[in-house]
Design brief:
By secondary structure, the chain is an alpha/beta fold. The chain folds into two domains: 237 residues, 3-Layer(aba) Sandwich (Rossmann fold), CATH 3.40.50.720; 37 residues, no CATH class. It has eleven helices and seven strands. Strands 3-2-1-4-5-6-7 form a seven-stranded parallel sheet, with helices on both faces. Helix 1 links the parallel strand 1 and strand 2. The radius of gyration is 19 Å and the shape is globular. The protein starts with 9 loop residues before the first strand and ends with a helix. The structure holds NADP nicotinamide-adenine-dinucleotide phosphate (NAP). The site of NADP nicotinamide-adenine-dinucleotide phosphate has 28 residues, from helix 1 and helix 6. NADP nicotinamide-adenine-dinucleotide phosphate binds next to helix 1 and helix 6.
Amino acid sequence: MKGNGASAGWVLVTGASAGIGRELAAAFAARAHDLILTARNEEALAALARDLVARHAVKAKTMPADLSLPGAAEAMAEALAEAGVAIEILVNNAGVTFEGDFARISLADHLRLSQVNIVALTSLSRLLLPPMIARGHGRILNVASIAGFMPVPRLAAYAASKAYVLSLTEGLSEELRGTGVTATALCPGLTDTAMVRSSELGKPIPATMIKSPKEVAEAGCAACLAGETVCVPGLANLAITTGAPLLPRSVVRAIGGAMTGGGWDWIASALRAGGFSRDRSAR
Ligand SMILES: NC(=O)c1ccc[n+]([C@@H]2O[C@H](COP(=O)([O-])OP(=O)(O)OC[C@H]3O[C@@H](n4cnc5c(N)ncnc54)[C@H](OP(=O)(O)O)[C@@H]3O)[C@@H](O)[C@H]2O)c1
């Protein structure tokens, strides 16, 4: 931690131009970390960098990149190495979602989602982790979702990508025991960002269950610095993620379908179709 003007180390935040990523950058800056901010929107990154430098007297550099392009993560790691920047904390926050029936979403969008949510996150983790292990300290904070705990109809590929992020992070966290490096999966529920505001699917959810990006980022930043493996902000979200593995898979699927536009009739029709009794053994 910074006490006398010393930096607490460089943090690379992907998806820093908006939403949870912007608040994560602010949370780390408030704890004296210097920042590398990346996303596509150069103007938003530059404005955030100016603001964080002014408010927290940290260094902040921008590195615009489109993580949906193959090779973007490799180019970023090379640029960091050339600049002599050692990343102490990697925050893989950038994420996209395409909602609707899987067969109606274009293949190009499915591939874009896989590239941003899975490939770029995996690549940056693989490229930046070995130097952390060699130094004996470092942190990875991967932004998953409560959707990573359950299949979600009409967000099927998104939820599957977040299940990957959650599983990868938990596996990594065990591998890293004793190295001084930790991996944390931040699993927000619905959060008030552009991702949710532009979505039809969260509309049946009561507003009281929607958290602010600042609350989510503060919880994620604290969990990351404490070296916790899984962070689910909010009691209702914690209840969902704790309860989901205890329920039959068919019920979990039906609840996901109800929340993403099917309404409660979706659950009734799933139960009528006999999915519950058929799948009880597949918990
Ligand atoms: N909001 C929620 O309810 C919620 C819930 C659970 C998990 N999450 C997860 O939280 C993370 C942040 O989401 P958010 O809600 O803050 O969404 P958001 O406001 O839409 O922000 C998404 C961020 O990702 C960046 N991004 C998107 N496509 C990119 C690309 N091709 N290359 C580089 N950067 C890209 C965006 O920047 P540019 O557009 O400037 O590139 C932006 O900074 C995501 O991983 C999301 O899945 C969100």
